[in-house]
Amino acid sequence: MILLATGALVVAAVAACGGSQTASGSSGGSASAEAPATSQDQAGAAGGGQPATAKAPQNGGACKAADLKAALGSKQEVPTDVQGQLGAAGTHYKADLVWTNHSGHSCTMQGFGGVDVVGPSQGADHATFSLPRMGDTPAVVKLAAGGTAHTTITYIDPSGAQPASQSGRLWTPTHLSVTPPNETAHLSVPWTLGTPFYQDAEAGIAAAGISSVTAGS
What we know:
four-stranded antiparallel β-sheet; 31% strand
């Protein structure tokens, strides 16, 4: 009876061991039976389990002064009646202040920038004139990296319209101090147009104006 009981225990132990190996083997068999991983799955696993996606281009929001460089284009004479609000005297011109996005991302401009015309002071007279806004309904202008927009400046050259006694007082700017819309930082732009600029130094105003920012250059 003791031998039979011992034999039964041995058989039970062997059966238990065999069952454990079968479960382990079954688990291994299930893993080997799975479909082989695809290249997309492997790429996902290599990327932390997330599928690879193309990086969206960065949008910098509103253009900052640091995103832009500014320069004056060439001047173009226009009929007096085109900008009659400036007065009838002198020769009327317009020139574009060109904004170029030199950052590595796109940005937007909307509204009127600030344009101050700066030149030599004449005694106690003003040396800086802030140009008023003229017309236009501002639109949103998107500048891709390297893209351009412009502000049109209209002004009067009083040469030939002043009495000869005052011709020596013609005022020629040295540069512009310009600010992008909704910004406070400014950029300095040389006055490359070569013409005098009509201003009333005593009143601190100039016969000139600016448009809102427009696409292109």
